[in-house]
Design brief:
Blueprint lengths: L5 E10 L3 H15 L3 E14 L2 E14 L3
Length: 69
């Protein structure tokens, strides 16, 4: 029987252009640091305002990666 064990870690990523770009930046960075990344769940989204206008996008991601044997 094969057993898989995974870990979940939370990361935060920002973009000046969109939530989609923030998600992509977070996932790309996770893949550079972690091995066996399997999924990412968007836990939170928020925007930064400057003078009443959206100036930045931030996401908190829960990233799941499989642990090595």
């Amino acid at each position: 029987m094969t057993t898989t064990v995974a870990r979940v870690t939370e990361i935060s990523a920002k973009s000046e252009s969109s939530f989609e770009d923030a998600i992509k930046a977070g996932v790309d960075r996770a893949n550079k640091t972690l091995r066996n990344v399997q999924s990412a769940w968007v836990k939170e989204q928020r925007v930064t305002l400057t003078d009443g206008k959206v100036s930045g996008y931030q996401v908190n991601l829960l990233v799941t990666f499989q642990l090595d044997d």
